[in-house]
Write a structure and sequence with these properties.
Layout (H helix, E strand, L loop, with lengths): L10 E5 L17 H10 L5 E5 L4 H6 L4 E6 L2 H6 L6 E5 L10 E6 L15 H11 L1 E12 L4 H5 L27 H10 L3 E9 L7 E4 H6 L4 H14 L9 H10 L9 E7 L19 E4 L7 E7 L2 E6 L19 E3 L12 E2 H10 L3 H18 L5 E2 L11 E4 L2 E4 L4 E3 L3 E2 H18 L12 H11 L6 H18 L4 H12 L13 H47 L2 H39 L1
Parallel strand pairs: 1-4, 2-3, 2-5, 3-4, 5-6
Antiparallel strand pairs: 6-9, 7-8, 7-9, 8-10, 10-11, 11-12, 13-18, 14-16, 15-19, 16-17
Helix pairs in contact: 8-9, 10-11, 12-13, 12-14, 14-15
Amino acid sequence: MTTETAPAGRITLPGGEMLAWSDLPQQRLADGGPVAALAARLVPPGARVLVAGPHDPALLDQLGHAEVTCLLRSHPDAVALAQRAAHLVVGGPAGLPDDETYDVVIAAAGLDPVESVEGTQLGWDGVLARLVAVLRPGGALLLRLDNPLGLHRLVATTPWYAGRDDSAWTIGGVLDRTHPANRDQLRERLTAAELQPAACWAAYPDASTPTALLDADHLDSDGGSGLFDAVLHGACAGGFTSDTVLQDPARLAVDALHAGRAADLAPGWLMLAHRPASPAAPTTPSADRDLPVALLQTGRPGIGVLEVLHGPSGWRWGLTSATGTNVPAAAPFASREAAYRDADALSGPVPSGRLLRTLLLDAALRRDLATLRTLLQGYAGWLADQADTDGRIAGAAALAGTDNVVVDGARYAVLDPSWRVTDPLPADVVLARGLWRFAAELLTGGYAHPWSSTLDVVGLTVVLGGLAGHDVDRTTVDEAVEAEAAIAAALHGLDHDGRVNLATELHAVAPTDPPVGGHSYQQLREAWLRQREELARLTALTAWTEELLTSRERALRRAETTVGLLSGSLSYRVGRLAITPARLAKRGARAAKRRAIAALAPQQQEEQQ
């Protein structure tokens, strides 16, 4: 190798390196995602950090304020990352020098990828013991553990034990007693290694590239949190769009949240543990920092990761920079054609309450029209209060759909106020857009509801508007769908043609369609059942129409036959002979009357003159 690809003195080869293998992740998140943001928050400036195992290169960029050593088993990966780390050790954990200690050890890819198949096999506990040995007293360890009973396995179409690719060297089943299989077992292993578990975050929707890290203890205790509800639904709905799954992962994650089991079903966990400090050693500064309740991927490079932190009056929003510190405003990062996202708004408290969409779905499933009416009237009234004197709504309230509004008693509030419209929208269009989005989710999602199965999406929107106390007509719904297409096109960066195509697709959404986005066999089956019911209804209607037409045609034929028989009878002919002279006389009398009137008209005019 040359000094251009691997600077001299940076790469150490103690033995056991894998020369023809790469572990670097193919799927990467902007700025390294929540894992990199969490790692940057835990690492104080100037700290000595050991990054054990393959990680997103952006994570190393986030640790530019520290002295980083990488422990890798792949030599090509070491060459690729040589410019991002101060030192790289290529081989198994046994190759770490005994006289080196670190303030923070990060193993956010787990312990299995740390061990090289070309070197001495230490096993999971052996690798953990080696990493603990190089962690100085008072230091912190950030460790990932995959969940063998996670949501990703429950919805996968291919069983986990059917893997045949080259990377399936270790099979993470629950019968493997050398690996911990849940959070309690992980805490026991860390305690046995003389570490003190401090915090744990559940990783969704995938353990390797999570877009959301949620505090596991809060997930267990705050099952009704509208924030967690929206985050889990959004992360799981967007994390499985490229795969067909067995069932809807977003619905399963939300159900697990309200059952207090969202942390148990997480695809993986990130556990933070500390090594107790000796009397002569100071405590690592990172151990005293406030730990975030949640870290959320924004999806935009250069913006950072959204944080939810503890504040004096509850949770509050925050935004991380590239160095992991909390920063104020950032420039809006979406097209301003119809809507944009303003990071300046993410600095206040996170409103408490339950997500309006979940409450509406629950009431619809229970056929509770009274609760539906109360919630929708409250939602419509709250939107009306946000309108100006011209009846238009601006800012975040104009985009406040049922999936971004939380309800706490009689109080309604926008959950994420960073999404804003460029120009104010009419209040009736804003309401119709929120109701249309809910109606589309209700019908295409296959949810049971108390209304007629023959209603289309627009018709159900009109019905929901009536429950909300507003006369929403189909014209207003069409305007709302156009607004939805423009807003979605702006937020996703679609061009004019993409916006037109999206509007066409939204107008064509039917109750027999599966939900938009990733498809599950369960949802596809429900869509097939709805299509079969619709076909059965149309077939029955066609059969009834054909039977009606056949009966009418038979009656007409009978009438024609009767007329034909009567027209050929003797009485009919005699009647015609008797009636014909009378008809002719009547016609002659009418003609004579017209001629007499015409002759008298000039005489009357002369007399008048």
